[in-house]
Amino acid sequence: MKNIWIIANWKSNKNIAEALEWISLVGPKLPRKDNLPAGRQGLKVVVCPTFSVIEEVKKAIQVGNFPLMVGSQDLSPFDEGAYTGEEAAAILNDLVELSILGHSERRQNFGESDEMVERKTAQAIAANIIPLVCVQGQDIPIPSECNLVAYEPIFAIGTGNPDTPENAESVAKKIKEKVGQEIEILYGGSVNSENCKKFLEQEDISGFLIGKASLDGEEFVKIIDCANSLI
Ligand code: PEP
Fold it and tell me: At CA 111, angle to CA 107 and CA 116, rounded to 5?
């Protein structure tokens, strides 16, 4: 049975009050693992807020005991030390279990290179944070220690114009062949509650990285319900 990952990338959205409102709406609606029969526990839901909101989100999840992991949208390529403004993985790991790395918005707006993504991946792994490496096509290098990849074609990010499930499946298959190791491939790009089922039915797609549709708690829950009905 494959895992299904549903990962919310809030980007630069939601202040603390808005984030807590989302958690109080989504948290109680998440399928609880202890209510699921054995073998149906492969649904992994993650929320990735801005750095300044992570701690409050984490506390709210703990208080509600919600089956929700917390992730960051980036981390530092450096160790702890004299790197002003950076979030070192060794500090962040008190708060997050996963980090989105190499998102196309970081590559485009902040000049993030493949080499930088590789360094960030190594930092994440050393700090026990799961690196979720975003690739915009099958030719983007994938760091060797990385087991979780999001295929996110640029034309589909935030445009309302998703890739086809068939093409996403074909890219996912090619990435798996190229990497030749146990790796899970997610799809990202204009996923919503209307189009998610067809992607999840593809053999090599193990869930989603979701931007816009994750901001609306009700819409996000619909996507989770769809994933939960398929595992
Ligand atoms: C993303 O930014 O990772 C993303 C998939 O965005 P959207 O869902 O808005 O296309």
Answer: 80
pTM for this structure? 0.96
Which atom of ligand 1 lies at the shortest distance from residue 100's CA? 3
| Residue in this structure with the two tokens 């595992």, named with its chain if needed | 231
Q: Could you give the residue numbers annotated as active site?
A: 103, 152
11: its two tokens: 């980007």
pLDDT digits (tens, 9 = 90+) for 179-215: 987 899 999 999 999 999 999 999 999 999 999 999 9
Q: How many CB atoms lie within 10 A of CB 105?
A: 19
All domains in the chain, ordered by first residue: 4-27+42-230 (3.20.20.70)
Q: Is the CB of 205 under 6 A from ligand 1?
A: no
CA 192 to chain centre: 15
